[in-house]
What we know:
This protein has two helices and eight strands; from the N terminus they run H-E-E-H-E-E-E-E-E-E. By secondary structure, it is an alpha+beta fold.
Amino acid sequence: MRYSHSLRAERLAAMRWRAPVVTAMxxxxxxxxxxxxxxxxxAKAVLAQVLLQRAFSSALAHGEPVKPWPWADTWPVARIAxxxxxxxxxxxxxxxxQALAFGxxxxxxxxxxxxxxxxxxxxxxxxxxRFLGRVGYGDEIHVTRKDGRTARFRVTxxxxxxxxxxxxxxxxxxxxxxxxxxxxxxxxxxGPERYLVHAEFVANDAASD
Length: 209
């Protein structure tokens, strides 16, 4: 009987020792998976922009939309660049889930940048619009359109709003630009707020590819 109690106590002690170890191993494995997933998301975003740049250059040269890969349900329509920050990104048609997975998207129902009204481009805060937090008042944003023209805008304001109360008017008088992403910029999960960068039209320039 004493032997039985002793054996049971040893087993319980071993189980108590193994449980934290197993938990730690599981947490470490989960962490590696999350890191790998995060790395894959960023790698995919970088690779996609290379293919999108090629497709956009081809579209400018031939004057018609070019899909970045055969099965894509979207295509490049513009290139956003901010010279002060040394950043640029190819914009895709429509704001579908696939478009946003690979680059900034031109929100449906808004005009092309440089046309009358408010052009709106949106992207994920952890990939293609990671730089929005560094955009400041007075920065120039250049948007090269699919027709080869480049519209220049100057940043006038930033704003945090609810997704359903942005106040953006696509048909507003004048020529405006809004870059939008989720808020807070460093959050891990999505929420109801959006971060907007507002810019006003300066001029149209000849495109350079």
